[in-house]
Amino acid sequence: MRFIAKTLFGLESVLADELAFIGARNVRPANRAVTFEGDQYLLYKANYSVRTAIAFLWQIDEFNIKTSEDLYRAGSAIRWEDFFTPAQTFSVVPVVNSPIFRHTGYAGLVLKDAIADRFRNSTGRRPSVSTSDPDIVINLHVDRGRVNVSLDSSGIPLFKRGYRKESTLAPLNEVLAAGILKLSRWDSGFSLLDPMCGSGTIPIEAALMALKIPPGRFRQSYGFQSWTNYDRGKFEAVKKECNALVTESKTEIFASDISAEATAKTMTNIRHAGLSDYISVETVDFRDRKAFSDNGFIIMNPPYGQRIKETDLSGLYNMIGSTLKHRFPGYTVLIITSEKEAL
After folding, report:
1. What residues are paired with 96 via a beta bridge?
2. For residue 328, which of 282, 299, 295 has the smallest C-alpha distance?
3. Do 163 and 217 meet the contact criterion of CB atoms below 8 Å apart?
4. 289 neighbors 322 (Cβ within 8 angstroms)
């Protein structure tokens, strides 16, 4: 089986390493994606345990076209009845870069018609299209005359872990937080502080990594559970295997913020993730924070854009630099920002 893992720009190599670690074959980084091969068990395991993927697609067909009619004929030839029934709803998500189609949406309509007509011809019933909450999500990728058709095995994007109950303005994406932690080379042997924690994404993802808790543990469902070939026994075996790796950790993880509202939201999310014993939360201005050891990691995502006035940026970054210099010598620091001038 051939799969495509979608991710954020810059995390391709991290995701490739994660996939290789769980046993994926022919792992190849691409642009915002990683292609690989494996079986059904590996697909379930990737969805449940990999931290830096947004979604996993199962590539079910690949072919060349010259006209929209070619897409209809090839789409009609796919055995859709092997994947879902006419009683289920579906949607097509098209990504098109081809002169064959006037606009992206038209290619999606052609494939929708091909799928619906195949079911009507074979069963007398057409499945319904749903754009809001489909049972089956089909990805259509057209690059000039080359077409890839895939099933989205994840459903709701994987960065929506399920533990976040409260959000601050512009919360950090969970996949991005996990990827940055891996790129930072932080591991559970070092203490970690996020002094501008927002809703707590970085410290929570760090604690999950330290405890080896799979990110899928909080999820209620996956796209592959709606497929007709879904194997519940295999998925239960995947969960048992991954959950057996969960361990204790003595890693010190700290979250703080100058905003009491932010730390309250962080504590809510921490409690929902079951991590209250592993993350210390405090409402404090970063300039007043004290070092918690002789060395450690600080990873922060300072406020920007809507969260802070442009005239305040210079003062904020001056404060960050001064505090790091005088209070945290010997620490490894990563600052997530697009404010290059202020940095």
Report:
1. 142
2. 295
3. no
4. no
Confidence check: pLDDT of 177 > 90: yes
Alpha-carbon gap, residue 17 to 8, rounded angstroms = 15
Q: Is 148 strand, coil or helix?
A: strand
Neighbours of 243 (CB within 10 A): 15
Identify the CA nearest to 192 among candidates 320, 319, 292: 292
What number of helices (H) and strands (E) belong to the chain? 9, 12
What Å distances lie between residue 303 and 164, 213, 300, CA to CA?
19, 29, 9
Q: Are 159 and 54 in contact (CB under 8 A)?
A: yes
Burial of 9 per CB tally in 10 Å (0-12, 13-18, 19+): exposed
Kindly report, residue by residue over 4-27, the tens digit of the pLDDT: 999 999 999 999 999 999 999 999
Within 10 angstroms of residue 13's Cβ, the number of other Cβ atoms is: 15
User: Residue 18: which residues within 8 A CB-CB, separation 6 or more?
Assistant: 50, 51, 52, 53
Tell me the Ramachandran region of residue 198: left when phi exceeds 0, alpha when psi lies from -120 to 50, beta otherwise. Answer: left
Residue whose C-alpha is closest to residue 209's, from 9, 47, 23, 50: 50
CB 24 within 8 Å of CB 36 = yes
Residue 169 pLDDT exceeds 80: no
**Number of neighbours of residue 296 by Cβ within 10 angstroms:** 20
Of the candidates 134, 221, 179, 223, which has an alpha carbon nearest to the alpha carbon of residue 34?
Answer: 179
Do residues 164 and 271 make contact, with C-beta atoms less than 8 angstroms apart? no
Q: Which of 294, 293, 292, 317 is nearest to 304 (CA)?
A: 317
Q: What pLDDT, in 10s, does the model give residues 252-296?
A: 999 999 999 999 999 999 999 999 999 999 999 999 998 888 889
The Cα 69–Cα 137 span in angstroms is 22
Q: What is the pTM assigned to this prediction?
A: 0.92
Tally Cβ neighbours within 10 Å of residue 338: 8
Local confidence band at 337 (pLDDT 50, 70, 90 cut-offs): confident
